[in-house]
Amino acid sequence: MAAAELPGKYQKLAQEYSKLRAQNQVLKKGVVDEQANSAALKEQLKLKDQSLRKLQQEMDSLTFRNQQLAKRVELLQDELALSEARGKKNKKSAESSSQLSQEQKSVFNEDLQKKIEENERLHILFFEADEQHKRLEAELRTRLEVLETDAAQHQAVVDSLTRKYTDTIEKLQNDKAKLEIKSQTLEREAKDCRLRTEECQQQLKNLQAALGSRLEESLCIISEKVPFNDTRSNRYNALNIPLHNRRYQLKLRDLAGQALSFVQELVTALLNFHTYTEQKVQIFPIDSATDTISPLNQKFSQYLHENALYVRPLEEGMLHLFESITEDTVTVLETAVKLKAFSEHLASYLCFLRKILPYQLKSLEEECESSLCTAALRARNMELHRDMKRLTAVFEKLHTYISLLALPSTKPEGLLRTNYNSVFTSIAASLRGSHDILKDISKHYSQKATLEQDIPTVTQKLITTNDCILSSVVSLTNGMGKIASFFSNNLDHFTASLSYGPKGGTEFISPLSAECMLQYKKKAVAYMKSLKKPCADSVPYEEALANRRVLLSSTESREGLAQQVQQSLEKIAKLEQEKEHWMLEAQLAKIKLEKENQKLKNSLSGYLAETVQERSVLPNVTEQKEETTEKSQREPIKSTSLVGMLTITTDNEKAPDVESREDLIKKHYMARIAELTSHLQLADSKSVHFHAECRALAKRLSLAEKSKESLMEELKLASQNISRLQDELMTTKRSYEDQLSMMSDHLCSMNETLTKQREEIDTLKMTSKGNSKKNKNR
């Protein structure tokens, strides 16, 4: 089990490693992309810094230029104020110089205007550059924050991967250690297996030698005792009795019972359908109670009235077929003789269908020509016209295939065994086709019945008849559907059961050989039953165990037991003679007793008369006498005779009591008889005991023979097991060697993958450290 689980475990580890490797590659790609993005952003940042420095330099130069211009403007203004003050003093000189100042002023104004415009433009550029710089700085800062978060996430992923890789490395190292231990144990087991194989090979050689000698002996016995091998010839082999497959017979009988129930339902539905169709012909389109129907319908109803003569035999034939399939028979197509009778009954029903088909079609045409028939009803009648033709054709096909199946039991050359499967499939297809046709008939009849209810002159009798026809058609459809599904579901069993036959042969040659085989099978069954007759009751098991030591220690021989039985028989004969003697003595004593009773009665009659007179005179004296008689009756008196000891009671030691003496004699004889019967029973029990001991010894002998046979069978099984174990050892040895090679290869590949993973983890750590340093520098 451990060796079987290792490849699956390594496969799971390889899958996890491939997943981690794919994730590692994705992370590598992401880190490289981020590094490229960060480098591009650094270049852009450098360019922006350079442009910002240029703009700052231009700004500084412009501010310096503006300051110079402002100073110059101030100087010019001062000069203008001085010139105006001088102009007041000297207007003339001013007029002459005004022209020059105006020219200079215009030049200065133009120059100033240009400088102002240039200053405004530079201010605008500076403001725009400043805004752009601020916006770019904000973007870069946000992007830097995003990159820092991404770098932190990547660092966390890298840390988790490193932890995971370290865990996997530890697991793989542990697995490697376990596999090394297992490989060592497997090597030890392989060594043990080699030793066992050597021992088994030695035993195999010994067994082969023993079996070779036994084979030679058996071949000699076969050549001397067996005159010929009847399994070589199909003609003789067909007469051999096949192995009895009770499960197959019970299954086949169960299937035959189901088929019988389905056929009974189908027969009932067909009877109802034909009967209700006859009633329908009698009342539509012309009611026979009010008017005469056409001669065609009269003939049609006459034929329909005979349907039971053709339908009932189907059920009887199926019943006979079911009864022929029993648990004790061999049921194949060659022995299924009753299938021929069922085929003949189906042929007679097919003739009936062919006979009524033209009348049925003409009746439908006549119904279409009636004035009550509408266009829709005429269309339904024509559909039924086609359906009836199709139904008859399907029954013809079904009869053809069933008659083909009946051929092997009468004419085996009429149907080859290779065609059995195709015949069964054709029967299944025909049953399905008949079920489809009956469904169409049911649909068309229901439509026809609804249309006939709309006729103004419809009667209640016609409506009920239509309902009955519909119910019979529905039951007929359901029955045919059950038969079709039943046959299709059990088609494999029907086709597979055809291989049932004598050992070494594939078929029965002819029905005659199959019949002879069945007769031989009956004789064999009778012989086996005679062998399996119940034995007489033996000694109970507990008593046999208790007497086992006595049986083992007994030294009496069979002759001694016979002498004991003879002595017991002689004793029984003597006891019988004594019994007869005592019976005669009892009869004599009985005669004497009767005579004594007569004497006592005569003497007592006179004595009683005297006592009556005395009682009338002396009642008290009688009471005393009665007490004395009671006391005297209680005192026993013993007397000896030829009969034995008798215990009697006396009445005043003169007149004996008759009844008590008779009872005592009876008790004495009963005791003697009981004693003799006990002696007889003791002798009987001894003889039965000896007989039981003999039977127990015979049973032990038979048990010893059976144990000898079972030991021989166990020896055969042991030889077979040894050969099987040798094969298994060879296969296990090869599998262990393959597994060891695979495990070594796998361990090498795992070591390589571990080294690669370590290198990749180191590179990832280095790259992650470099990225973190760069982010910190940023």
From TrEMBL:
The organism's place on the tree of life at top rank: Eukaryota
Renumbered to this chain, the Low complexity biased-composition regions fall at: 95-104
Q: Where is the Protein phosphatase 1 regulatory subunit 21 N-terminal domain?
A: 11-112
Region Disordered: list its residue ranges.
85-104, 618-638
Cross-referenced InterPro entries, in alphabetical order?
Answer: PPP1R21 (IPR040024), PPP1R21_C (IPR049372), PPP1R21_N (IPR019343), PPP1R21_six_helix (IPR019348)
Q: Subcellular localization, per the record?
A: Early endosome
Q: Which UniProt keywords apply?
A: Coiled coil, Endosome, RNA-binding
A single GO cellular-component term from the record reads: membrane
What residue ranges carry the coiled-coil annotation? 144-210, 558-610, 694-735
One GO MF annotation is: RNA binding
The signal peptide here is none
Tell me, in one coarse class, where this protein mainly resides. Answer: other
Residue ranges with Basic and acidic residues bias: 623-637
Write down the PANTHER family for this protein, in alphabetical order: PROTEIN PHOSPHATASE 1 REGULATORY SUBUNIT 21, SMOOTH MUSCLE MYOSIN HEAVY CHAIN-RELATED
**Record protein name field:** Protein phosphatase 1 regulatory subunit 21
